[in-house]
Design brief:
Helix content: 25-40%
Radius of gyration: 16 Å
CATH topology: TIM Barrel
Shape: globular
Largest sheet: 8 strands, parallel, barrel
Distance between the termini: 8 Å
Strand content: 25-35%
CATH class: Alpha Beta
Structural class: alpha/beta
Number of strands: 12
Order of helices and strands: EEEHEHHEHEHHEEEHEHEHEHH
Strand order of the largest sheet: 1-4-5-6-7-10-11-12
CATH architecture: Alpha-Beta Barrel
Length: 243
Amino acid sequence: MTLTVFPAIDLKAGKVVRLAEGDMDRATIYGEDPAAQAEAFAAAGADYLHVVDLDGAFAGKAVNGAAVASVVRAFPGRVQVGGGIRTREAIDRWLELGVARVVIGTAALERPALVREAAKVHPGRIVVAVDARDGLVATRGWADVSSVRVEELAARFRDAGVAALLFTDVGRDGLLKGCNVAATVALARSSDIPVIASGGVADIADIGTLAEHADEGIDGVITGRALYDGRLDLAEALRVARG
């Protein structure tokens, strides 16, 4: 099996940024033009993008909609979008805009019936975000931590028809500490839903290690800061991920 690499475009006030551990006060700006960044990733060979409306994650509704729309128009491949998607109307609106998949986090914990309904109506287009702090599910832009363990949340959607679980170790996100491969593999082994790894990817070694576990249910990897800081070459990452 091969691993799908998702370059990340995180949006704050219309700009391309990366946060440290999900902290909005620890944002580094990497660009003023999200569409140009999407075009650059496409030129390097990316077929997929992961876009997050960071402001939306805290507001509970779309804030950077215009920026996301510009990315969808500029990128020739498939775009998955997350951040503040908590209603059926929001899900339908993003998909009608041309987004390939939507990522649902807070609502997956608080409104699981919404996820099940959306997955039934839009098969293969709903991703459940499983964001973890010390093994517990974090919500609302990672500002809150629940008492639900990540494996328990994943189990709730075992038969729902969701496309994937997006697992992020919040404590590593944006810090280049290396991906939490052990926790990602453990989640993949405990579920029959494909898992996308996220949080802390530091260099090509992380891509290679995750690719080695692709046959255990790890379907993809999201990487952001390592690309922006030049620690990871996207074309090389794509080659390694594709075997």
